[in-house]
């Protein structure tokens, strides 16, 4: 899929339960964000079966706040609607590709079981 710049949509509207979604929270004044942008775009163009989404945290402060973003850039990866990766800072193209490969190889039954177990202990 093409690179998506999230403006009016909500995060829930783009996190599909049957796909991988990579989200880059960034800001125009952020030097590391500007350095990471070409890496994000290059990996996005190489992996057409994954949704890559950019969220300008300055314009969409509501989404950034609801996602708990405290610094930019922050990268989040969802698989089958579950957050499986969250990390502030930048990655090289090789690192980003490696994280995505790891995401693809996850046993989602185990991830769901872990998530359910974690939720049950929070209550």
UniProtKB/TrEMBL annotation:
Keywords: Disulfide bond, Electron transport, Redox-active center, Transport. The keyword Disulfide bond applies. It comes from the Bacteria. Residues 1-105 form the Thioredoxin domain. Pfam families: Thioredoxin. GO terms for cellular component: cytosol. Belongs to the thioredoxin family. This is Thioredoxin. It comes from Paraburkholderia piptadeniae.
